[in-house]
Design brief:
heterodimer, A: mainly alpha, ABC transporter involved in vitamin B12 uptake, BtuC, globular, B: alpha/beta, Rossmann fold, six-stranded mixed beta sheet, three-stranded antiparallel beta sheet, 7 helices
Chain lengths: 285, 254
Amino acid sequence: MLEALQFEFMRNAVMAGTLAGVVCGMIGVFVVVNRIVFLSGGIAHAAYGGVGLAFCFQWPVMAGTLGFSLLTAMVMAAVTLESRHRADTVVGVMWALGMALGVVLLDLTPGYNVDLMSYLFGSILAVPSSDLWIMAGLSLVILAVVAFFYNGFVAMSYDEEFARVRGVPVAFLYFLLLGLVALSVVMIIRVVGLILVIALLTIPPYIAERYAPSLARMMILSALLSTAFTLTGLWLSYRYDLTSGATIILVGGAAFFLVLLAERLRDFLRLRRLRGAQAKSIPAP
Amino acid sequence: MTGPVIEIRDLWFSYNGQPILQDVDLAVRAGDFLAVIGPNGGGKTTLLKLMMGLLKPDRGRVRVLGAPPQKASHRIGYVPQDIHANKNFPISVEDVVLMGRLRQEGLRFRYSGKDREAVEKVLKQVDMWNLRERRMGELSGGQRQRAFIARALASDPELLFLDEPTSSVDQKGQTDLYALLGRLNERVTIVVVSHDLMVLSTYVKSVACVNRKLFFHEDSTVTEDMLEMGYQCPVELVTHGHLPHRVLTPHEDE
């Protein structure tokens, strides 16, 4: 890994991976505890419509994608706010529409053949330094917003109805949260692609939830896990010449199943020990 | 306060065109311990949400502590149904109870040292102080219910609303719970919603039967139509030991 760091693209990849890990750690925690994984997937896919728009009308890609994703996120927030548990159909429709819009708009763009694969799996090895600065800025914005509204977000996530009774502006916080999801998704898609966004938003928080005593600790733990997965995946992809985004996902997935397996094993051993103790306490006839 | 703490006049509420509550009048006096009973889907929880300003009536007026419910909501302690809580959520008992002190300062939500003192007081009051660092998911049903009551009490409310507080609590826990509520009732007005007639313990002072319409009973005696309303079919009460026994006249206008 160390000799790889002499290349600028590799140093940039490590930086981008770390930033993506930190952002996914913070936002993914809210995505998992609020059960909006599907909604976040919808925002991430619909964002492709923004890519299409940006290329078709020659806007800056980052700004175009960001604007479009924020718009879809707000529409989804409005639709899902009142009936959070019945809104999956609308999310599904927007998910597909955004993606299709992107593909057709890119067809209409003369002389440009965008690579859908790079959107799906990202191009972490080709992150320019300018993008790193934008990513660092966005990470700080997200960190500041989460820290400022932390108590309100926790109350809304734990018990929305009680939060309302206490006068917490739940609707505002919900729109804000989905806005943050859109912001993070756009930022991370550039680096690691759409599929990895979903993996990083879900796997590290899911593991962290089992060991953290509070949402803040859960965020720190999942940020560390995200970063560890990203860097390990990056190293493996460099060492064995594999697609970097997909390798990172496989590392996260492997950790996910290892944790589940370890827990099963622990429960099994505990049960056996318990049975053993019970058998001893009953005297033989 | 001389007037009623909760006053509902000619209230109608429907959801998706389905009438839920019709022509409801209710006046709850200060210091009361009101049990709202009726079948599932009869509108009990809806009535509670209307009293907290979480829902708006189609017609009629709701006054809580002399003000519209939204204005009074910070003077109400609310204990929601247990099923809403996400049991995997990483949060400690103390942090949940702190939510009861949540209030807005500018755009921010902060907790002060005073808030932590208040939390200590209520946690000791419900006998949960030694469990304050536990994760909510590790508690038993009865302990979780006590934590939620502590959260509701943390803001020092004048009114306490509980929605199906006994649904995940065992028999012993229920007896303890009502003893606790009985003690609290010396200071606060309590409204308990339940489909379970067990709520008609000795601590309950008045009863409202809700099934689209509301019938108010000034004292807490069990009538035959309460039983029918609660279980949607005639039942016989079979009990062991001493059951405080009460019989009341039927509703006049039925």
